[in-house]
């Protein structure tokens, strides 16, 4: 059977004519029926089975060997997180979590991403049927990305704090401008967690819906030595801080006198996203030029490629995550293909390289 090329070079090849096989696990019969209806309406995917809980799902996984699993967070008989942790230890596979938009739901979803889930789907708060049907294209897009992803086996007790990086003398003018999508929450954590408290300011656009970015920032703030927060319009950009774009607004960098300032924008989506990585990168190219370090991490599609190229042309050093360490290689590959990245690095190399570039810039400015 021939292999077909993937749009934007997203990741592992999918056999031409072979549908993506999906197993849906949810205790709600309505959600199971809606997911089946939506997925089966797309020619390149099909639901091979549904399960009301993880115990039933366990046997169906053995029987059907699905390409992607959609998994409800809260279910009877076995919690979705417990099942996910066991699954990623014993039989790693692409998993999409199905989450409610609540504070508790968002925190559990972020924990699921840490355990190895590829991404998550958000249940509508009201009008579940109409809301889920409106999500049809998004659901299909996330399933395609999951099918092309590279999940890895999670070993028991594997999660440990990374070795802290040493503090360096950096220029207060230096900034890190970072963008990510699918696989981004965990990749961003791995970049931020080892950074010293006096690292350059970091602005982050992560594709994530409103309501989740606040929990994401709080979770990172507890893990990191730097201050991590959801960005607020008009606030001054300070070293030792990371500012995460709210899930329903674009994040831009602007100048106010001698200072950098955050600007939030409710403009239309760019590349189908708000926040858009391109919007952030283009603002950094204009406002910071060679004082910025651009970083593009794992994600599906091409958001960020054009903006990273604009940053490079403005004199910035630009880094793209390599294929082997990317959960989904779409966004970095697009940037590399158009010559936007000055360097391509593994995820574990990003934080040390960012600090080295900032320190080199600081020495150059002091000479």
> If strands are numbered along the chain, what order do they take across the biggest sheet?
10-11-9-8-14-15-16
CATH level-two architecture of the largest domain: 3-Layer(aba) Sandwich
> Helical content, roughly?
25-40%
Q: Indicate the mean pLDDT.
A: 88
Q: What is the third-level CATH name, the topology of the largest domain?
A: Rossmann fold
Number of E-state strands: 16
Overall form: elongated
Low-confidence stretches: 1-12
What do we call the CATH homologous superfamily of the largest domain?
A: Methylesterase CheB, C-terminal domain
The major pleated sheet works out as: 7 strands, parallel
The ordered H/E elements are: EEEHEHEHEHEHHEHEHEEEEHEHEHEH
Describe the structure.
- By secondary structure, the chain is of the alpha/beta class.
- It has 2 domains: 18-147, Rossmann fold, CATH 3.40.50.2300; 175-366, Rossmann fold (3-Layer(aba) Sandwich), CATH 3.40.50.
- 37% of the residues lie in helices and 22% in strands.
- It has 12 helices and 16 strands.
- The chain has helices at residues 29-40, 54-64, 80-90, 103-115, 128-134, 136-147, 184-192, 213-223, 277-287, 305-313, 330-337, 347-366, and strands spanning 3-4, 14-15, 20-25, 45-51, 68-72, 95-100, 119-123, 175-180, 201-206, 227-230, 241-244, 250-256, 259-265, 292-296, 317-321, 343-345.
- A 7-stranded parallel sheet has the order 10-11-9-8-14-15-16, sandwiched between helices. A 5-stranded parallel sheet has the order 4-3-5-6-7, with helices on both faces. A two-stranded antiparallel ribbon has the order 1-2.
- A hairpin with a 2-residue loop joins strand 12 and strand 13 (259-265).
- Helix 1 runs parallel beside helix 5 (128-134).
- The longest helix is centred in the last third of the chain and has 20 residues, at 347-366.
- The radius of gyration is 20 Å and the shape is elongated.
- It starts with a strand and ends with a helix.
- Residues 1-12 have low confidence and may be disordered.
């Amino acid at each position: 059977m021939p292999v077909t090329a993937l749009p934007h070079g997203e990741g592992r090849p999918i056999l031409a004519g072979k549908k993506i096989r999906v197993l849906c696990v949810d205790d709600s019969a309505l959600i199971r029926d809606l997911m089946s209806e939506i997925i089966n309406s797309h020619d390149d995917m099909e639901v091979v089975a549904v399960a009301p809980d993880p115990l039933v799902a366990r046997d169906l996984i053995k029987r059907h060997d699905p390409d992607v699993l959609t998994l409800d967070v809260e279910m009877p008989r076995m919690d979705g997180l417990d099942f996910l942790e066991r699954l990623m230890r014993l039989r790693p596979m692409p998993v999409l979590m199905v989450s409610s938009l609540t504070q508790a739901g968002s925190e559990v979803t972020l924990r699921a991403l840490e355990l190895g889930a590829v991404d998550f789907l958000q249940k509508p708060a009201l009008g579940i049927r109409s809301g889920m049907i409106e999500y049809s294209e998004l659901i299909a897009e996330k399933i395609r990305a999951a099918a092309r992803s590279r999940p890895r086996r999670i070993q028991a007790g594997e999660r440990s704090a990374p070795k802290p990086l040493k503090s360096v003398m950096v220029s207060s003018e230096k900034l890190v401008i970072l963008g990510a999508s699918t696989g981004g929450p965990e990749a961003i954590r791995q970049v931020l967690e080892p950074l010293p408290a006096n690292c350059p300011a970091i602005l982050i656009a992560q594709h994530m819906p409103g309501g989740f970015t606040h929990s994401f920032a709080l979770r990172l703030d507890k893990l990191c030595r730097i201050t991590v927060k959801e960005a607020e319009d008009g606030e001054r950009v300070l070293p030792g801080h990371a500012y995460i774009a709210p899930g329903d607004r674009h994040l831009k960098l602007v100048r106010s006198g001698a200072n950098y300032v955050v600007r939030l924008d409710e403009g239309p989506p760019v590349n189908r996203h708000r926040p858009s990585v391109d919007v952030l990168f283009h603002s950094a190219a204009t406002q910071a030029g060679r004082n910025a370090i651009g970083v593009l991490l794992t994600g599906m599609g091409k958001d960020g490629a054009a903006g990273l190229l604009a940053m490079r042309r403005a004199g910035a050093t630009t880094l793209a995550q390599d294929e082997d360490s990317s959960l989904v290689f779409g966004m970095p590959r697009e940037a590399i293909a158009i010559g936007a990245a000055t360097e391509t690095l593994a995820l574990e190399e990003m934080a040390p390289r960012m600090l080295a570039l900032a320190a080199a810039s600081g020495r150059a400015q002091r000479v």
